[in-house]
Specification:
alpha/beta; inorganic pyrophosphatase (n-terminal core); Diaminopimelate Epimerase, Chain A, domain 1; 8-stranded mixed sheet; 6-stranded mixed sheet; Oligoribo/pAp-PDE_c-di-AMP_PDE; DHH_sf
């Protein structure tokens, strides 16, 4: 089912695939700003939002007094840290900024209801590709849920403005589209994503993008692989491994993806404890299997669980798990819970 858009340009609202051209959107966006505006771009930092923020900063160059990019979340993924460092993206933690001193606020790749810290802010523009939420408004809105990445939308804005992106900006946009479309395997990807990707393809530094992709592990995290290889148990084509306490759940994702490459493993379940929660990462080939459904059926009674056919996740408060007093969670415990529904 096709997802509805929401566009608001010069007080005209459309909720279907409109006839607004890229140039109309650009001009409507530009009308918000004056030469002395101090602009704050608010994002939840990830490759798509970082690239989009860089694009908006370039669009507003010489048109406003200043542009600052603020983000509330801690950037933990090494890929994203490498992207920020290598491309020298100027970003600042949102809580350190005098938000009320900015004359214009822009939200990218998110909506005001997505995080509690956003709800108190009044945004002048919201550009996003997630499903539309209610309870907020802005002077300029461009939400296109059928797009795979906001970065694809931003390429259209740049082209409408006759701006050729620099190598750094093109590299960011290339990576943002690549990540958010899941290497063009995402179901809601549009032809527009492919057109935008092709446009930045020859400008971007693809060797640098490979560096972003490959930089996933800190040396200090190699110990978790040793634990996983010692712990992994297999039964009927299913691999299970409990890693114990981890610094970040991201390492569980990396280990699950690694084990998913092993021959004869049709299912992979990797768990670890982060804070007061057990995090379980699930992988399968998606052929006559559905990891998301299995995660919900198996773990939803203990906490949040869900995902897609090939990949899923569960986050379960430790206090909710069926453990006896003083009993540790182990790989065997993971197997016992999982095999109830397999």
């Amino acid at each position: 089912m096709k997802q509805k858009r929401l566009e608001k340009i010069a007080d005209v609202v459309t909720r279907s695939a409109s006839r607004n051209s890229a140039l109309n959107r650009l001009n409507g966006f530009y009308e918000l700003f004056e030469k002395d505006d101090e602009v704050l771009i608010v994002i939840t930092a990830d490759p798509d939002s970082l690239a989009s923020a860089m694009a908006v900063k370039r669009l507003l160059s010489y048109r406003v007094g200043s542009v600052t990019i603020g983000y509330p979340n801690e950037i933990r993924r090494l890929n994203n840290i490498t992207m920020v460092e290598r491309l020298k993206i100027p970003i600042e933690r949102l809580h350190t900024l005098p938000v009320n001193d900015y004359s214009k606020l822009i939200m990218l790749d998110s909506q005001p209801t997505h995080q509690p810290c956003f709800e108190k802010l009044k945004f002048d523009a919201v550009i996003d590709h997630h499903p539309i939420t209610a309870g907020w408004d802005a002077k300029f809105i461009d939400i296109r849920p059928e797009y795979g990445a906001v970065a694809s939308m931003m390429v259209e804005y740049l082209r409408a403005a006759n701006i050729t992106p620099s190598v750094a900006l093109a590299t960011a946009l290339y990576y943002g589209i690549k990540v958010d479309t899941q290497n063009f395997e995402k179901k809601n990807m549009q032809l527009a994503d492919g057109i935008s990707f092709r446009y930045v393809f020859n400008i971007a530094n693809r060797n640098l993008v490979r560096k972003f992709d490959l930089t996933e592990l800190r040396r200090s995290e190699l110990k978790y692989f040793k634990i996983a290889l010692n712990e992994v148990k297999s039964s009927k084509g299913r691999a299970y491994a409990h890693i114990g306490r981890v610094g970040t759940p991201d390492i569980l994702v990396i280990i699950a993806d690694f084990l998913n490459h092993v021959d004869k493993f049709d299912w992979v379940l990797v768990s670890g404890i982060s804070g007061e929660k057990l995090v379980v990462i699930l992988r399968c080939d998606g052929y006559r299997k559905n990891a998301g459904n299995f995660a919900r059926k198996t773990f939803a009674e203990y906490g949040s669980a869900g995902g897609h056919r090939e990949a899923a996740r569960a986050e379960l408060p430790m206090k909710n798990l069926p453990l006896r007093e003083g009993q540790d969670f182990t790989t065997s415990t993971l197997m016992r819970i999982a095999t109830r529904h397999m």
